[in-house]
Amino acid sequence: MKTDIVIPKELLATYDLMNTINGGMAETMVRAWQEKDGYQMYLEVPGVDLEKIHIEAENQRFVIYYTIDVLGGKEQAPIYLANLPLSPNVDLNRISAHIDGDAIHIFAPFNDWAKGTKRDIDLER
To answer: Which of 75, 66, 79 shows the shortest CA–CA distance to 15?
Structure first.
């Protein structure tokens, strides 16, 4: 029996790098939920300077990562913390993120179409 489990190569490379170079890392906690106005995400990353975290919304994916120096500081390697699908009903231009104590809070609001906006359309003659 064959299983169709797909693991992003970025995650595999990250875990391999951390276990080889660093001897492991504290587990990241990601909580995400949907509310009436949009999606909320709460991210805790023990032992990482939160100012160095990168948050990207690209190609219908929501990617959160930071980089570490490798090869004596000559290169940077990404450490992926989250790689989640991004709903098409999210307004990319209004996504916000801020540091909240020892965590990062992200809000991804819905666009107007997701709220069920109604508009009458005039038929041109």
So the answer is: 79
CA distance 56 to 59: 10
The dihedral of CA 18, 41, 109, 93: what is its sign? negative
pLDDT at 23: 55
Domains within the chain, CATH numbers bracketed: 9-115 (2.60.40.790)
Taking the C-alpha atoms of residue 108 and residue 93, their distance in angstroms, rounded to an integer, is 9
Q: Average pLDDT of each block of 10 consecutive residues along the chain (125 residues)?
A: 64 62 68 91 88 88 86 82 86 91 92 68 74
- Start-to-end C-alpha separation, the chain: 61
Task: Tell me the pTM.
Answer: 0.67
Q: Nearest-CA neighbor of 91 among 102, 80, 107, 76?
A: 107
